[in-house]
Amino acid sequence: MARLGSHLEDEQAMKLKDPEHAAPADAAEKRHVTPIVCYPVETLPPPDLSGYRAARQGWEKVAEVTVPPREARTFEVPAGSFFRIVSVEGPQVGDFNLWNAADHAERFYSGKTRALHGTHLSTGDRLWSSFPAMRPMATITEDTLDWYGFDDFGGSVHDVIGTRCDPYTNRLLAGGDYHHCCHSNLTRAYADAAGLSLAEAEPFVHDVLNVFMCTGFTRDTGQYFMKASPVRPGDFLEFFAEIDLLGALSACPGGDCGSKHSSDVAACHPLLVEVFRPKAPPAGWQPPEKNAYGGSHGR
Ligand SMILES: [Zn+2]
User: Fold this and answer.
1) pLDDT tier at 19 (50, 70, 90 boundaries)?
2) Residue 249 alpha carbon to ligand 1 centre in Å
3) CB within 5 A of ion ligand 1: which residues?
4) At residue 246, what are phi and psi to the nearest 5 degrees?
């Protein structure tokens, strides 16, 4: 698609190096308009992080699941419990899907989560569900990689901008069939958990939270980039389950995603999921209601 403007400064260089259309006289003025945040979240009640964290006192680990390299596994977390995705053995990225355990049509909505919380998630951010429920499914209560922030390339960790590695894009760009992309891993694992065929299960697999992955958009072309994850064994991302959850985690074939994905080339490691049951839910916590919009769409 052609882009408007012809006098682009170097840092504004876009994909179309030689635009087809002349810039208007006030182009510079238009470019200097200060942006505003699309979805300011100040009206959302903030999560009571200290209340959540206090509930961890005396919690009990009730389940753990090891996700083998280049495979996915599912796990359940009841509302009011916590879970952690933990790095073990070596740097490894995980592609994460989440469903309402009682109704798999309600699933993690990475695009809306991105619109609300930004490109990369950390402590205090929520994982929002799809329409029409659109409510917090989980709240991030601790992130040992929060020190990373944004690097000089605009990269950060735990993105909601990628989708998941998949055999279709691989076929398109590289040719050949690779069956251990995260999309296929998640499809197999979800099919087993839900008792569905692969064909029935595949439409339930959705855009992910890229746990531990270090990504961004290139400044010159706006392309999705990845670089070696800073994750080290012992690092974890911790969540509080706001509703009853079914989760699925794939240990990406890209390993630390520092070079390649969609192949067996990268060094890969397992990931660990731990589920913790608190003695009591956080004080004052209530499971979130479904979104109150009535769904008439004006009719
Ligand atoms: Zn992947």
Assistant:
1) confident
2) 10
3) 95, 165, 182, 252
4) -115, 125
